[in-house]
Design goal:
The protein is an alpha/beta fold and about 600 residues long. It contains 18 helices and 25 strands. Helix 4 packs across helix 5 and helix 7 packs antiparallel against helix 14.
Length: about 600
């Protein structure tokens, strides 16, 4: 959600800025822009199209410069329009880009309007640009420090000034920002991946940090009370994957990422030769031994991963587990338990609501923290005592696929580790579970081979306006995830229910125009599920069933069946989610939607 790239160099940095924006497209955006210092003036180009169109625009206009900033915007304040796109200027002296939300922007807007500043956008960002300009007296670093003291909310900001060539200032509070250190040149970005191929020397700025970038030097100060003090931050070598954004033979990144799941699972489990708490970090055994419950905090798809893990944790490890939507948890009165293990789940590790919920839990005295995350250098990992890094690789498609399945793999390992510490896992059971996990990549390949059959279903779904998804027990969260995928990228209204809840309301919606997707593994709830399916058929509903091979569910009029290659016991959710991903993907393709960048959505949700 929104992306920043900035640079100070002795070469033309426009190609670097544009390439950085392309690498940040996965975060989601609806406008983009670039501004540079050229011939003593501020010059910019902005667009409500894709970065490729912005690239063509700057090439046509011959835009070049040695100091500049660029941005992809996901609209919050003000519609997606060129006049609301970043970078924003103030009196042709200050150029600024911003991620996040300024909560006191109305108050500041009124103050600045009274001083004679004219606003041409509806954004909270333009307020910051004018505020910096109003405080500028020849030292941009000082002006940004003074301006940041007036801001309430979450933000990452990069700004440069017409009067100070080869100088860029950036600051962050609640929104991620990294510094890239080059050879006599320096960079800032929302994500280290934006700087892949430019520099691998990365400094992760901390909350309240402000950095002054110039040629051959940078200076960091940290907020301390009402002022700032000099700060040293470690420079890390980060090898971003420059080839991660190549489509290869696939139509969309989402399709590519669905098919990367066998490799992603294999990479996530690489090196796991036995079940041990130390998989999650030093000191994990003591923490796991002392806890008496688990609290999972997450949003969106990650929340459904947590819901799946609840079934595992309680059934296998025998530990009470609560799953909370992070954006709700921090704003309600809850009963804290210092002996609870607080588990956060996030693909990016920068999800604002989840980080805020984690910090809230810690203020309540819950210090045992662990994250399941795909980015080892993220804020979430730095905030938690323990971590398991999924190795899904870069995920470009906004609708999460391989990040979800690798989260499930990490959560299953957590379940087994807690079961071991609590005396619930025998050596024989551990060996069986490890064999099953190692076989997952092969099993997933078998599921992916079902794609041609799923494409045929997608043609039917593309003509529908609504859909129901049903699951029971461990597979109810998988039905939720399937419905989410369909609505995210095809714009078909979809809901998921525990199948036993049909007669308590949703059955009223069922008719011949309502496809009902059913997740039907061969488990102890299968016969109950078959009864629920008959309830659908009795009302004329069309059933689309993903059934294990030995369920004895047969295709007939009104019942369409795709057989899964094998039953996979507790790990079945990791297999059953894949055909639901493919169904959503091919339905969206048939409807002609923007699969990788669905409307109104962002990949990395870094604001509330």
């Amino acid at each position: 959600m929104c992306g920043i790239v900035g640079a100070v160099a002795q070469r033309d940095i426009v190609p670097i800025l544009i390439e950085g924006l392309k690498r940040l497209e996965y975060r989601g955006y609806d406008s983009c822009g670039v501004a540079v210092h050229r011939n003593g003036e501020l010059t910019r180009a902005r667009s409500t199209s894709r970065v490729a169109e912005l690239d063509a625009q700057v090439r046509t206009e011959g835009l070049t410069g040695f100091t500049g900033i660029a941005h992809t915007r996901w609209a919050t304040h003000g519609a997606p329009a060129v006049h609301n796109a970043h970078p924003h200027f103030s009196r042709d002296r200050i150029a600024l880009v911003h991620n996040g939300i300024i909560e006191n922007h109305d108050e500041l807007r009124a103050e600045l309007t009274a001083k004679g500043y004219e606003f041409v956008s509806q954004t909270d960002t333009e307020v910051i640009a004018h505020l910096v300009e109003s405080l500028y007296d020849g030292d941009l670093f000082d002006a940004v420090k003074r301006a940041s003291a007036r801001l309430r909310g979450a933000y990452a900001i990069a700004v440069f000034c017409r009067d100070e060539p080869h100088r860029l200032v950036a600051t962050r509070e609640g929104s991620p920002l990294v510094l890239g250190v080059g050879d006599n040149e320096n960079f800032v970005a929302s994500d280290a991946m934006a700087l892949a191929g430019v520099t691998d020397q990365i400094v992760y700025l901390e909350e309240g940090d402000i950095v002054d970038l110039q040629l051959g030097r940078y200076w960091i100060e940290a907020r301390q009370g009402d002022g700032f003090v000099r700060a040293e931050r470690p420079v890390r070598t980060v090898h971003a994957h420059t080839g991660a954004a190549e489509l290869g033979p696939y139509r969309h990144f989402m399709q590519k990422e669905i098919f990367e799941q066998p490799r992603a699972i294999a990479d996530t489990l690489e090196g796991v030769v036995s079940i041990t708490p130390e998989l999650f970090g030093d000191g994990a055994y003591k923490i796991f031994r002392d806890i008496d419950s688990v609290l999972i905090l997450a949003c969106g798809t990650s929340y459904y991963a947590g819901c799946t893990a609840k079934y595992w944790l309680e059934a296998i490890a025998g530990i009470p587990t609560q799953v909370e939507i992070a954006s709700e948890y921090r704003y309600r009165t809850s009963v804290p338990n210092p002996r609870s293990l607080v588990v956060t789940i996030s693909q990016s590790g920068e999800t604002a609501d989840t980080i805020a919920a984690l910090k809230h839990a810690r203020t309540l005295g819950m210090e045992n923290t662990l994250t399941i995350c795909n980015v080892a250098t993220s804020a979430m990992v730095r905030e938690c005592k323990l971590a398991y890094i999924t190795r899904a690789g870069v995920e470009i498609g906004v609708a999460s696929t391989k990040a979800f399945s690798t989260q499930l793999a990490g959560l299953f390992l957590l379940t087994l580790s807690l079961a071991q510490v609590r005396g619930k896992l025998t050596e024989e059971q551990e060996a069986i579970c490890l064999r099953s996990m190692r076989h997952l990549p092969v099993a997933l390949q078998g599921v992916l081979a079902l794609e041609p059959q799923i494409i045929a279903w997608a043609e039917d779904f593309a003509r529908k306006s609504n859909a129901l998804f049903l699951g029971r027990g461990l597979h109810y969260p998988i039905a939720l995830e399937g419905a989410l995928k369909l609505k995210e990228i095809s714009y078909i209204h979809a809901e998921a229910y525990p199948a036993g809840e049909l007669k308590h309301g949703p059955l009223a919606l069922v008719d011949k125009e309502m496809p009902v997707v059913t997740v039907a593994p061969n488990d102890q709830l299968l016969e109950k599920l078959k009864s629920n399916m008959q309830e659908v058929r009795a009302r004329g509903g069309e059933l689309y069933v993903f059934a294990d091979a030995d369920t004895r569910i047969h295709g007939e009029e009104g019942i369409h069946v795709i057989r899964m290659p094998e039953h996979y016991g507790p790990l079945s959710p990791i297999l059953h989610v894949v055909p639901l991903q493919l169904l959503a993907y091919h339905t969206a393709c048939a409807r002609g939607t923007d699969v990788d960048k669905p409307r109104n959505l962002a990949k990395s949700v870094t604001v509330e």
